[in-house]
């Protein structure tokens, strides 16, 4: 039987040696501090816990079997658990921290996986974007090539269309010129028929024979027939400058044939002015007319003027006449601003080289008309008054064929005051016009 002292110390199984008991005590002392959390638990329960390492049970079994434990001969450090067991024990001791660490690890792994996935997705998207960009560049290049091709065709078609339009305009201009030339020729022939051959013409006579024989009655001389025709030229061909030029050249040649070089000069001067105003000084027709005028000057004894005729000088009488003719044509075309420029140039020349000639005052009146047509009444008035009064004072020097220009100057004054609203002045000049007519 066991004594009470033995019971107080605890029972010991038969055959258990003192050395084994001390080994168990040493093993308990070497256990990690983590087991201290249950100090009241019996040693048998702690030894039989599944969480206790199997290596720690070996000394106890060796003691029970009466065999010395190999651990008894080794220091306590040799019986420490491994890293995995320590980590597991730490996880048991700090369960919440372990869970948090595991969650953080999972989050890191998930973030790494997501980052890798995003990198792969970005790489694929970049490749796809490059592919789309390359396709867009290729399509754009193709579109540019097609556009360039059609643009070239468009320019070619546009050029062909412009060429066709230009050709059409030239054809119409040529047709109009031919029609105008035909009309002018007919007008010239009709004029000579009426002015030279209207009376006393034998029905069976040829035109040249009748012309040189007279025509307006058998008692009418060629000189009188020419004078009669010349007096009507300005009025009949007021709107046909080229026809007037042709007629005056014919009359000039006729005057030279009858020995009237001075009258021939006037015809050629007017013809040259019309041609230069219409086609310019370098036109072949103008050059031919200039040569005829030079001949007339020499026959009239005006050799110096014949020489100056071929000098390129802007202050010549011929140039002034060309400017006056051009200004008159522009007035008929309802272009008063352009006519004003030509007439101012003409007036400058004539005031310099022939200030007292009736043509200078006629130019003033014409310039006043250009200003009147632009409603510049205050500027037009002094020119119209001075022009008419100067022509009136020199009426005796005005050739008979140019007498209508004096009436024209009066008509301009009436128009001025009517347009200006000055009825009293208009009435005054209207009465003078009626008296002159």
Explain this structure to me?
The chain is mainly α and 437 residues long. Among the domains are: 24-93, no CATH class; 104-186; 343-437, Alpha Horseshoe (Serine Threonine Protein Phosphatase 5, Tetratricopeptide repeat), CATH 1.25.40.10. Helix content is 74%, strand content 0%. The protein has helices at 4-9, 18-30, 43-47, 54-64, 83-93, 95-195, 207-213, 222-236, 241-257, 261-279, 284-299, 303-308, 317-332, 336-353, 358-372, 377-393, 404-420, 423-436. Helix 9 (241-257) packs antiparallel against helix 10, helix 13 runs antiparallel to helix 14 (336-353) and helix 14 (336-353) runs antiparallel to helix 15 (358-372).
Name the features.
single chain, 437 residues, mainly alpha, Serine Threonine Protein Phosphatase 5, Tetratricopeptide repeat, 18 helices, 74% helix, 0% strand, elongated, disordered N terminus
What is this structure, in a nutshell?
The chain has helices at residues 4-9, 18-30, 43-47, 54-64, 83-93, 95-195, 207-213, 222-236, 241-257, 261-279, 284-299, 303-308, 317-332, 336-353, 358-372, 377-393, 404-420, 423-436. The protein is mostly helical and 437 residues long. Among the domains are: 24-93, no CATH class; 104-186; 343-437, Serine Threonine Protein Phosphatase 5, Tetratricopeptide repeat (Alpha Horseshoe), CATH 1.25.40.
């Amino acid at each position: 039987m066991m004594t009470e002292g033995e019971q107080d110390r605890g029972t010991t199984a038969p055959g258990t040696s003192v050395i084994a008991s001390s080994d168990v005590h040493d093993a308990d002392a070497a256990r990690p501090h983590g087991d201290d959390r249950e100090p009241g638990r019996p040693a048998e329960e702690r030894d039989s816990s599944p969480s206790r390492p199997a290596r720690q049970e070996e000394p106890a079994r060796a003691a029970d079997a009466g065999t010395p434990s190999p651990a008894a001969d080794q220091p306590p450090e040799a019986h420490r658990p491994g890293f995995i067991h320590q980590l597991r024990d730490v996880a048991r001791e700090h369960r919440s921290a372990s869970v948090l660490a595991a969650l953080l690890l999972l989050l890191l792994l998930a973030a790494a996986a997501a980052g890798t996935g995003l990198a792969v997705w970005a790489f694929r998207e970049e490749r796809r974007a490059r592919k789309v960009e390359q396709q867009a560049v290729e399509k754009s290049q193709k579109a540019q090539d097609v556009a360039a091709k059609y643009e070239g065709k468009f320019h070619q078609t546009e050029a062909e269309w412009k060429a066709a339009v230009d050709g059409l305009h030239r054809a119409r201009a040529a047709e109009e010129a031919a029609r105008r030339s035909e009309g002018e020729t007919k007008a010239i022939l009709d004029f000579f028929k009426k002015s030279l051959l209207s009376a006393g013409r034998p029905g069976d006579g040829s035109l040249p024979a009748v012309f040189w024989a007279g025509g307006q009655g058998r008692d009418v001389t060629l000189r009188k027939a020419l004078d009669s025709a010349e007096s009507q030229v300005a009025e009949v061909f007021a709107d046909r400058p080229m026809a007037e030029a042709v007629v005056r050249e014919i009359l000039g040649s006729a005057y030279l044939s009858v020995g009237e070089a001075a009258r021939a000069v006037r015809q050629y001067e007017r013809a040259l002015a019309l041609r230069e105003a219409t086609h310019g000084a370098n036109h072949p027709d103008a050059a031919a007319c200039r040569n005829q005028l030079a001949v007339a000057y020499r026959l009239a004894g005006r050799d110096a003027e014949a020489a100056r005729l071929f000098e390129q000088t802007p202050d010549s009488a011929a140039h002034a006449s060309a400017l006056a003719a051009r200004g008159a044509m522009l007035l008929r075309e309802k272009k008063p601003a352009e006519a004003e420029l030509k007439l101012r140039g003409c007036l400058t020349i004539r005031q310099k080289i022939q200030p007292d000639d009736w043509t200078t005052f006629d130019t003033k009146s014409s310039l006043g008309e250009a200003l009147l047509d632009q409603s510049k009444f205050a500027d037009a008035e002094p020119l119209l008054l001075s022009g008419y009064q100067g022509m009136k004072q020199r009426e005796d020097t005005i050739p008979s064929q140019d007498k209508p220009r004096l009436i024209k100057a009066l008509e301009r004054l009436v128009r001025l005051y009517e347009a200006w609203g000055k009825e009293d002045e208009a009435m005054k000049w209207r009465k003078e016009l009626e008296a002159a007519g």
